[in-house]
Amino acid sequence: MTIEVLLPDEAATNRAGAALAGALGAGDAVLLFGDLGAGKSALARAAIRALLAEDGREDEDIPSPSFALVQVYDAPRAEIWHADLHRLSGPEGCVELGLEDAFEGALCFVEWPERLGPLTPARRLELRLDFGPEGRGRLLRAAAVGPGWERAMAALAGLGAGCGGKA
To answer: What integer pLDDT is reported at residue 64 of this predicted model?
Structure first.
């Protein structure tokens, strides 16, 4: 099953991240594909912010992991890993970061997941963000790989009515 939703602005991207967060938990891997500036970090940060808000930490700083490569957060539902693999050349660096172990029990958001190679989790939610029509907004395409993604896909499909999307 795939879902396509037009996110017309940053507020819609934030709503998508928050909606998705409600359906995620320990052991989930969300892989974020897209060009530089497509909104991968913004979507992940919105989801992380919603998850931290469950613990009263909605104002916590959530930096992009571009330079640190990985940011880790303790949240009520699960430890959260946000990784940006853009500067890595392949799976070896992912092993050194500890991603292989994180996939087993943490909630992981991974930007530039092409670098994972054979470490790519068998069960994952693939989100592709592209620039919208005429460069406005973002087009979010979601594909569930493996079982257990019904709630996440329903959360994203529910955005379609208000954001111009289709399932």
So the answer is: 81
